Amino acid sequence: xxxxxxxxxxxxxxxxxxxxxxxxxxxxxxxxxxxxxxxxxxxxxxxxxxxxxxxxxxxxxxxxxxxxxxxxxxxxxxxxxxxxxxxxxxxxxxxxxxxxxxxxxxxxxxxxxxxxxxxxxxxxxxxxxxxxxxxxxxxxxxxxxxxxxxxxxxxxxxxxxxxxxxxxxxxxxxxxxxxxxxxxxxxxxxxxxxxxxxxxxxxxxxxxxxxxxxxxxxxxxxxxxxxxxx
Length: 230
Known about the structure:
By secondary structure, the protein is mainly alpha-helical. The chain has two domains: 52-133; 140-228, no CATH class. The protein has helices spanning 13-26, 33-39, 44-132, 144-168, 187-190, 200-228. Helix 3 (44-132) packs antiparallel against helix 4 (144-168) and helix 4 runs antiparallel to helix 6 (200-228). The longest helix is centred in the middle third of the chain and has 89 residues, at 44-132. The chain starts with 12 loop residues before the first helix and ends with a helix.
């Protein structure tokens, strides 16, 4: 047999107790206060306040940007000065080292030349003293040949000293000896040339300048010996 239907068995007591609020909420009756405040439109005062705050933040960012730009400019200037310092120091050191080397070499060459000039000067003085010591008035018939040979030897030695010094020191070449050569240079300029750069004629003249006094001396001794034979 079918049981008798009891309507009380399908009634939810909890649902009945909270049904009023749920139904009212589901129907759009009441909204929480915090949520309602977040959903409403901002007022004019709030917009003005937020705009003022944004402008203040932008001003702070602009000041920070300006500070960073000034710092960047200062750092770039500092880097430029550091590079200039390093480059200037390197270039100056290189120039000074090169200058010291060149001046030391030039000083050594000039000192050596000065020493050679001092020795030549002393040799000139000694040769001049020997030439001036020749006194023809003291020669006699007996010692004439011997004194003449000694005098020729002294003169020839002094002449060789002079010719050798002229090749080493162009300052000894006077204006009268500066004749223009076929290449347009004066003999004073040509005298400073090395032997390899001289012409054959020039070398011949130099060789003759060194050898002809010896030839003359040898010829004079030969005549003296020839005259002394009975």
